[in-house]
Amino acid sequence: MPNTHPRLVIAGTHSGAGKTSVVTAALAALRARGVPLRPFKVGPDYIDPAFHAHVTGTPSRNLDSWLLDAPVLRGLFARAANGGLSLIEGVMGLFDGKGSGHEGSTAHVAEILDAPVVLVISAQGLSRSAAAMVAGYASFHPRVRVGGVIVNRVKSARQYGLIRDSVEKACAVPCLGYLPENPDFALQSRHLGLVPSQEVAELDAVVAHLALAAGETIDLDGLMALADGAPPLPAGELPRVEGSFPVRIGVARDSAFSFYYQDNFDLLQTLGAELVFFSPMRDRSLPDALHGLYLGGGFPEVFAQALAANGPMRSAIREAVSGGLPVYAECGGMAYLCVSLADAAGTVFPMAGVFPHRAVMTGKLQRFGYAEAEFCRETVLGPAGTRVRTHEFHYSRIEPEDGTEGCYRMRKDGVTPWRGGLASGNVLAAYPHIHFYSNPSLPRNFLARCGAFKAGRP
């Protein structure tokens, strides 16, 4: 009987080992063969999934074992993975998770899904030492199975042969090929990770180079055999979410705002919402007949000039908010709702002006990592006391901070609790990113508020 959920995790020894290049190459080469693909990304990342989607034409979904309970994670995976070969790109190094623990790591997701792992190692400065590295990763956790190795940034076929022979002799783990060192394969980075796919010049040419290399130097048949050999997927369970809300939600989506979980969109649509995408950079007005707005994160600081130049859109959002339109904004979306945004050079650009605060880019990371949020007051997502697991990652800060009583009480291990978030009327804006399946009552509450607005109730 064929495997209904062929799957494998492609993990790295560390950040920068080349996971995204290898995954992009493998996806492109397998798609060229006509293999139906289902891409996934471990952790709270929005940029890598966009590369997956660009290559495969299929949405890539996040699998986060700290934000999501294991049965829910398995349920979401099973629903999206059915009918294709699933390639799951890891995050950071294989065993790096929340703090020094297992939770949230690529290894934890591999364990939850009972998926074999292909370990990506960098060949830079290595030959036989690669065997010691692989041996350590392969034996570190008894329920995480390293089933293969791909070597990245290889200088020559001879170097790969030395590494392959050393690894296979010492570890009994097969090497499944390599990618050569080639500047044409490089994916550029900036302050929040890789430069997003929609900004990469000649991305299709880069993908074509990677696909060609993968077809020549990666054992694609071996990858598929390893994925097909995964055991039956453990049972999952999705939470029962009741309610039907036939409302139209405007979703800001362009180069400035692209940080969304695909599962969030899916859940909103399951609850009856129609999602209407628009561009705060290019569109001169909001879509017609909206009952709510969803403004995700992204890079408004990079595109601040274009956002500021679109005065009609900024005015339309202010007017919609003053008319009571429910709004939920995360991170970069919150910056856009401030009165101004100062970029890294100190240039100040006018924004939508819903809040009298200023968003200011700084030269260092302000907050990074997982944290739990508790609502200090009623918001469009729920009543006071509501709790949800979240993730933050930002270089900006909101000013003034003094005298601003945040609507979230944030808690993180080893860190003094803090307050964050802005709320006024039907608007909630905050730095933390929320996966709606962490607490499905939140999107339901938001859509209920949008339904009340549609019905003319405050």
From TrEMBL:
<feature type="site" description="Increases nucleophilicity of active site Cys">
    <location>
        <position position="433"/>
    </location>
</feature>
<dbReference type="InterPro" id="IPR027417">
    <property type="entry name" value="P-loop_NTPase"/>
</dbReference>
<keyword id="KW-0460">Magnesium</keyword>
<keyword id="KW-0169">Cobalamin biosynthesis</keyword>
<keyword id="KW-0315">Glutamine amidotransferase</keyword>
<dbReference type="Pfam" id="PF07685">
    <property type="entry name" value="GATase_3"/>
</dbReference>
<dbReference type="InterPro" id="IPR002586">
    <property type="entry name" value="CobQ/CobB/MinD/ParA_Nub-bd_dom"/>
</dbReference>
<dbReference type="Pfam" id="PF01656">
    <property type="entry name" value="CbiA"/>
</dbReference>
<dbReference type="InterPro" id="IPR004484">
    <property type="entry name" value="CbiA/CobB_synth"/>
</dbReference>
<dbReference type="InterPro" id="IPR029062">
    <property type="entry name" value="Class_I_gatase-like"/>
</dbReference>
<comment type="function">
    <text>Catalyzes the ATP-dependent amidation of the two carboxylate groups at positions a and c of cobyrinate, using either L-glutamine or ammonia as the nitrogen source.</text>
</comment>
<protein>
    <recommendedName>
        <fullName>Cobyrinate a,c-diamide synthase</fullName>
        <ecNumber>6.3.5.11</ecNumber>
    </recommendedName>
</protein>
<keyword id="KW-0067">ATP-binding</keyword>
<dbReference type="GO" id="GO:0009236">
    <property type="term" value="P:cobalamin biosynthetic process"/>
</dbReference>
<feature type="domain" description="CobB/CobQ-like glutamine amidotransferase">
    <location>
        <begin position="248"/>
        <end position="439"/>
    </location>
</feature>
<keyword id="KW-0547">Nucleotide-binding</keyword>
<feature type="active site" description="Nucleophile">
    <location>
        <position position="331"/>
    </location>
</feature>
<dbReference type="GO" id="GO:0042242">
    <property type="term" value="F:cobyrinic acid a,c-diamide synthase activity"/>
</dbReference>
<comment type="pathway">
    <text>Cofactor biosynthesis; adenosylcobalamin biosynthesis; cob(II)yrinate a,c-diamide from sirohydrochlorin (anaerobic route): step 10/10.</text>
</comment>
<dbReference type="InterPro" id="IPR011698">
    <property type="entry name" value="GATase_3"/>
</dbReference>
<comment type="similarity">
    <text>Belongs to the CobB/CbiA family.</text>
</comment>
<feature type="domain" description="CobQ/CobB/MinD/ParA nucleotide binding">
    <location>
        <begin position="8"/>
        <end position="190"/>
    </location>
</feature>
<keyword id="KW-0436">Ligase</keyword>
<dbReference type="GO" id="GO:0005524">
    <property type="term" value="F:ATP binding"/>
</dbReference>
